[in-house]
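Summary of Year 1 activities. Much of the first year was spent building the evaluation harness for sequence design. The harness presents a backbone, in tokenized form, and records the residue chosen at every position. We chose the following record to illustrate the format because it has been used consistently in internal testing since the harness was completed.
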């Protein structure tokens, strides 16, 4: 899995751009899919304390012939653990579950200023980083203004947010570009919806691939990390077939033109999103 878009390099960070998502995968599904993902070349796995599958993720990585050090592992602190004294115990619990001495990226899963001031949460996450519990820290589900504030407060590297052809996040991308961070796209295939899209299908026909691969290539070609998830082992490799074709500028623009402000994840505790 190597071509010019396979790795994101920004500041001191080196991230395999295609990651395997594990939201809503139960431990058995993780044990069935993560080994396949590693086998076909994924080197980035995304989990979270809230997914209740960290132990299975850690077990699948440990059981793989791929070296742990060659896999970029992300986990997240749930918002109710955002108080500084809880950040360390949450991270320690994640490491115990994963059976790892560190992760590569630790994210604050959602803004949580009702629980603790952002400054205090990020200070505790930075301290966890300085103690070697994680290589990097970042945030998730931060709109642009909150993200800009987070960059002022701590050495974060990414914002993991919902992003796919139907939901643009331009203001967030601008803040990331201004601060040397990278965008991580969750729900990158709009929970499977892109598979039914006529425009993406037509573009895919030009390249001998399907709409899912077109969508993932569109993200990677813009320097965005993407975390597609599937519970089906046979789809794991299929979704990763994004390195042997390239989209033209015109195709990239056609895909960007599908944006319609369609948000799939918007829980009641979520932030006020950027307009658009
Ligand atoms: N930070 C956050 O708050 C947050 C929130 C949501 C997600 N995430 C992360 O981002 C990852 C991805 O998001 P997501 O899992 O919500 O959505 P997604 O990856 O956009 O879509 C997953 C859905 O697409 C289907 N699918 C996968 N491959 C397909 C294909 N080739 N053709 C048709 N359908 C296909 C899957 O069904 P099958 O299982 O049947 O294949 C599944 O229902 C998560 O797993 C998680 O790691 C983070």
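For this record, the design step produced the sequence shown next.
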């Amino acid at each position: 899995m190597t071509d010019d878009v396979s790795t994101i390099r920004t500041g001191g960070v080196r991230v395999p751009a295609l990651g395997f998502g594990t939201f809503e995968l139960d431990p058995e599904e993780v044990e069935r899919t993560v080994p396949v993902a590693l086998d076909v070349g994924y080197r980035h796995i995304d989990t979270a304390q809230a997914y209740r599958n960290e132990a299975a993720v850690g077990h699948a990585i440990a059981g793989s012939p791929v070296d742990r050090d060659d896999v970029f592992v992300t986990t997240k602190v749930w918002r109710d653990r955002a108080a500084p004294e809880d950040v360390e115990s949450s991270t320690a619990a994640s490491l115990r579950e994963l059976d790892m001495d560190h992760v590569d990226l630790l994210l604050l899963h959602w803004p949580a200023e009702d629980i603790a001031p952002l400054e205090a949460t990020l200070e505790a996450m930075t301290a966890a980083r300085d103690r070697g519990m994680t290589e990097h820290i970042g945030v998730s589900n931060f709109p642009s203004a909150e993200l800009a504030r987070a960059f002022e407060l701590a050495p974060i590297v990414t914002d993991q947010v919902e992003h796919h052809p139907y939901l643009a996040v331009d203001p967030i991308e601008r803040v990331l570009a201004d601060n040397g961070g990278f965008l991580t796209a969750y729900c990158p295939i709009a929970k499977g919806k892109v598979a039914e899209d006529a425009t993406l299908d037509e573009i895919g026909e030009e390249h001998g691939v399907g709409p899912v691969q077109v969508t993932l290539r569109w993200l990677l070609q813009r320097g965005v990390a993407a975390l597609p998830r599937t519970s089906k082992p046979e789809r794991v490799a299929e979704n990763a077939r994004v390195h042997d074709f390239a989209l033209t500028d015109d195709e990239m623009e056609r895909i960007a033109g599908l944006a319609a402000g369609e948000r799939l994840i918007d829980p009641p505790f979520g932030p006020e999103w950027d307009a658009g």
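The two ends are 34 Å apart (CA to CA). Quantitative recovery figures across the full test set are reported in Table 2.
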